[in-house]
Structures are given as structure tokens and as C-alpha cells.
Amino acid sequence: MAASIEDVARLAGVSIATVSRSLRGLPDVATATRDKVLAAAQQLDYVASPFAARLASGRSSTFGVVVPFVHRWFFAEVLGAVEGVLRGAGYDLLLHNLGDSEGRERFFSVLPVRKRVDAVIVVSLALTADEVEALTSLELPVGVVGARFPGLSSVRIDDVAAARQAVDHLLSLGHRRIALIGGDTDDPMRFTPPHHRLIGYREALNAIEVPYDPALERLGYFTVGGGEAAMRELLELAERPTAVFAESDEMAYGAMRAIRRAGLRVGHDIAVIGFDDHSNADLMDLSTVRQPVAEQGALLTHAMLAALADDTEPTDTVLPTELVVRGSTVLERSVYKN
Amino acid sequence: MAASIEDVARLAGVSIATVSRSLRGLPDVATATRDKVLAAAQQLDYVASPFAARLASGRSSTFGVVVPFVHRWFFAEVLGAVEGVLRGAGYDLLLHNLGDSEGRERFFSVLPVRKRVDAVIVVSLALTADEVEALTSLELPVGVVGARFPGLSSVRIDDVAAARQAVDHLLSLGHRRIALIGGDTDDPMRFTPPHHRLIGYREALNAIEVPYDPALERLGYFTVGGGEAAMRELLELAERPTAVFAESDEMAYGAMRAIRRAGLRVGHDIAVIGFDDHSNADLMDLSTVRQPVAEQGALLTHAMLAALADDTEPTDTVLPTELVVRGSTVLERSVYKN
DNA sequence: CTGTTAGCGCCTTCAT
DNA sequence: ATGAAGGCGCTAACAG
């Protein structure tokens, strides 16, 4: 059997209370005593039972982290950053991957994090009022990456402004017939970004009085295949768009393929800009709006740890995005158009 | 405060032992009694404290899952599958993302899963003898995805055979000067695949007595950039390769870009085949050897759950791979070569 | 079929 | 600065 706190106490010749205090670095322990205890613990290869500690203290030193799909780039990237910060702070990470809307419902009705975490981090879900309420009922610090909700901490970007950055770029290149390939704003998994990026797109057009054409707004469902299908439809329009803004790089990849398969050249015949600066965007020579992904996760995690320590109010942080121009929105376009 | 088992017992008019039995679905409880208890529990919105249960029972209903980098496609994909199976079985998942070799060392020396999990799943690390020993010292079922070690359960593919599938395909198209872009077999994170895929590559050449040329074996470090750099070097050789086998699709993407940037055509001037059937391989029109990724994770998790239930011997399962031919290894190559 | 009673291993007052 | 002792909330014999 593994050593228990009593074994350590016996070997060090002190009480278990002193062992507990020494090992946790609490004050009011004589240095000599602490050293004796540390030596004994090391000799016995002692590790405290987290369950006993948690039961006795009421603290779990664990975060619950909820993601819609671990295997998608954005969520995996955020998760990695969150994990790193938690590990550094001595916290465990309990992963909850929703997977689909059924998994989502189960999570919010069962709330499997109950009685087992000190805080919860939710990544990029547009929570319903009921869901926010469910999370609030936990009476724990709750943080969100990628969206803001009353009463919850958050770190995010300004999706509306970022979408405008993208569309403004296309406008500045002279494009006026600009299509949108977006996410479903009625998606059962309800991400916030589609909604805001659509608004940004329309605002940008509106700002210089380019009338917006519903026929140019298509759904790409945040997948490569979806982006490709949407682009195919756009290419069949009587009056084809000269540029496309895709709400994610992955959809943009699909759009680029559709363009190439139609015998047209990306950037020359049709400009394409994406969103994210996904790890392959550079490879694909895709212009995009970069959002700091890992940073959002790390920053929120730090904020949550601070909240746990100081019992402070929820915070909301908005991080900047950055236009990244690559070959898919080349300037020489006019050369080929004329 | 949240309700405890005593509150439920009081409301149902039974002892806490009966509540425990009823809620866990143990036998020897009268149906009427069980119903009373369930009703009381529901009314109080009762959830058992996992820490108390774990302390008392000695079981944690938790798996530790170790991945080198969550944010990389393969690991994220496996993780998602593992999570799904565990969730379905009522298990929690404690995530450990190593990140770098420092994180790796820390994990294996500290073993932060001690006293908190029932089993450990390690994804695709070539463990050293010391590391296997450290895991074994936990005296828990340990499983590995993507490699095999004595005493540990595993689900994996045959990397040697899969690499041969890829190279045989190139050989069958008439290629004889075939380069390799591989992972570092001395990588501090020590994945097994590079080693085996290199062997498969050499075996395939050997089988038809094509002499293997060390100048054609380059390191791509499993990144797009690494693959591109490796390909650039290969293109500068006096006697250029006519085909390339990359040990991962991501490296193949980089190689394809290098080929295009050199003004050559992928598939026509130089054939490229990757490995994995990464989610973008279809998009890139890249031929590859598909390995079942999520399946490996799910299968191993089921095996581990079974091992926990039956206390059976470690198992080893090898899943098949499949050649997927796309445009990057087109047959019409000869048309252009002649 | 149900209740009683020890623990599980640690944290945390409260004394000293 | 240290020790004694009572929980934390549940499980698991053991009785009955």
C-alpha cells in the first residue's frame, strides 16, 4: 500500500497535523521540523490522497473545462493553453467534450461537474439563458472563452469589428460584390461568432453604402465541405461575386477549392479572405483575420485562478485581432480583370 | 449547502446505507423502497459527493489521459473518442498535456495521476524503459494508443506495413527514385511512428532491390514548415527524386507547397504521398495511407474499461490501414514524363 | 431486505 | 510551534 500521512508522521516523529502543515507550506512550522517531515515524505514517496484532502477541505483544485468538439482546431488550441496554466498552478483539468446537441443537453441538465470542481471554463458556446442559469446555480466562478454573458468572466475578441476588418480589406481592394460564407446562426450548438461576424459583414457594406444582397449570404457550417458547397452555389449566380469573406479559414479552404475546380484563380478571379489564421492558412496562402487563440484560453484561466484566490468580480477582456494579407487577396487582381 | 446522503435518508425515511444502495442500483433493495429513495433524491436534487465516495470505496471512476500535444490533429482526435467512451461509462477524464520534453519529464517523475485515477491512457509516445516502469509502478491498468509495450494494453496500426503500402504504391506507378520526409527518430518526445515508417520505406525499396539512397531521407519534424524545408533540399539534389513519401500528411502539405513554389506540378512532375488521411488531405488532393484514429482511441478505452471490470491481461490490437489514392499520385504521370 | 457502525485519509479548529 | 480530536460524506462489512 502507498504511504499515508500517518506513516510520514511516525517516521518524522511528529503529529499528522504537523505533517499536513509542513507539506502544504503553511506558516508556523519550525524549519527543522519541516525539514524532518519533508525528508520523511520523500523517503516514503508520499503523496497526499487528493480525495481525502478534498473531502476534508471542500476544495477540489480542479477545473471543469467544457468544449463543443475537442478535435476542432480552435477548441483544441484553447484547451492546450488552459491545461498549461492549470498544470502550472497545481490544478487538475476535468475534460467535458459535448460532441453534439444531445451531449450538450445532457451536460447542462446533469451538470456532471457538480461537487467536483472549483471553477468551470466554457469554450465558445453561445449559452442560452437556461444554460447560463444552470452554470450560475453551481455557485462557482465560471468563465467563457469567445463570448460574454452577464455574471460570467470572459476573454474574447470583437467578432463584429474583426469581420469588418476582413470586409473592409476587400472593399479597399475595390471589390463591391462581396459574398459571405457563414456559420448557421440557428445552429443547435449555437456558437456566438456566426451572428456577430454576419453583423460585421453587413455593417462594413453598409458603411460605404454598398447594398447588401441576401443571395450572396450562404451557409458553410464551419466545415471545408460546407464552404465548398456554398462557393459552388455562389459561382452559379447570374452575377457572380468578385470576393468572398468566409467566417472561418476552414470554410475558406473549401471555397478556394470550389473556385479552382471551376477553373478560376483564387486571388485573381475571385478574392477570398477567411477568419482565424488557422494553422494551415499560411500554407494555403489564405488572407485572414488572426485572432489570438491560445492567449484567450491562458488569459481566462489566469483570471479564473485570480477570482478563486481573491473572490473578485467577473471580468471581461477583449483581445485585438489582426488582418493578415496573403495571396488569396492579391492586389494585382486588376491586372487580370482588365 | 447542497443536500447530503443523510438529507435524502431522512426525507425517504430510511438509513443512509439504503440510500447508497438504491442510488447505485445495487441488488437486494425492495422496489418500493428504491422508488421512495429515488423520489427523495430527485426532490432534493441530490448528487453524491464523488470525493467521499472515492475515499470510501477506493475507486475513482476517473481515467488519466496523457497526450504530447492536445492541439495536434491526431491527439485531439483520439482524445475526443476516448472522452466519448468514458463519458458514456460514467467515468471522468483527467487531461495531461505534456507540451514539451520538460513537461514530459515532470509528468513521469511526479506522476500526477497517483492516487487519483483508476487507469491511464497514453497516446502515441515511444516510452522509455524508465517511463514504462514509472507507469507500471502505479499498479493500474495502463493502455497506449499507437505503440506497444510489454505489460501495457495497446491499440495501434502496423506502421511498417502502412509505410510499405505507401511506398509500394509509388513503386507500382513506376517510381524508383523515391524520397522520404520523416520525423526525427531521436526526437526528445520520442514518437514510435518515425522509426517504423522509416523501416517500412526501406523495406519496400529493398523488396524490389531498389538501392536506398541516404541523400533521399530527410527530416520534416512532423510540421508543414519542416516538410517544406525538406522538400526544398530534395529539389536541389543533382538527381532529383520523382516521388516523395512523407510520414505525415502535414509534412506532405509542406512538400507540396515547395514543389509548387519551385514551379513544378504535384502529381505530374513529382508524386507525393502522405500518411494519416488528415482532415485536410482530401482538400489538398493528397494521396495517403489512412489510419483509423478515433477508432483506436475508442477501442482502447473499451479495452481498459473491460480490464477494470474483469481484471484481465493486457491486450494488443492492430487495426488495418488503407491506401487512399488522390491527385498527388496521378497515374497520367507518364504522359508528362515521356 | 434494511440498519448500524467502522473506517477511508486528510484538514482544521482548539488547546497547550 | 505542535498535538489532539472531530468531522468531511460516503462505502462496506456485519447484524439482524
Describe this structure in words.
2 copies of one chain form a homodimer. With 338 residues, the first copy, chain A, is an alpha/beta fold. Chain A folds into 3 domains: 5-57, lambda repressor-like DNA-binding domains (434 Repressor (Amino-terminal Domain), Orthogonal Bundle); 62-157 and 293-320, Rossmann fold (3-Layer(aba) Sandwich), CATH 3.40.50; 159-291 and 324-333, Rossmann fold. In chain A, 44% of the residues lie in helices and 15% in strands. Chain A has 13 helices and 12 strands. Chain A has helices at residues 5-12, 16-23, 31-44, 50-57, 73-88, 101-110, 129-136, 159-172, 193-207, 224-235, 249-261, 294-310, 333-337, and strands at residues 62-67, 92-97, 119-123, 142-145, 153-157, 178-182, 217-219, 243-246, 271-273, 288-290, 316-319, 322-324. In chain A, the strands form 3 sheets. Chain A has a 6-stranded parallel sheet with strand order 2-1-3-4-5-11, covered by helices on one side. In chain A, strands 7-6-8-9 form a 4-stranded parallel sheet, sandwiched between helices. Chain A has a two-stranded antiparallel ribbon with strand order 10-12. Chains A and B meet through α4, α5, β2 and α11 of A and α4, α5, β2 and α11 of B. Chain B binds a DNA duplex (16 and 16 nucleotides) through α2 and α4.
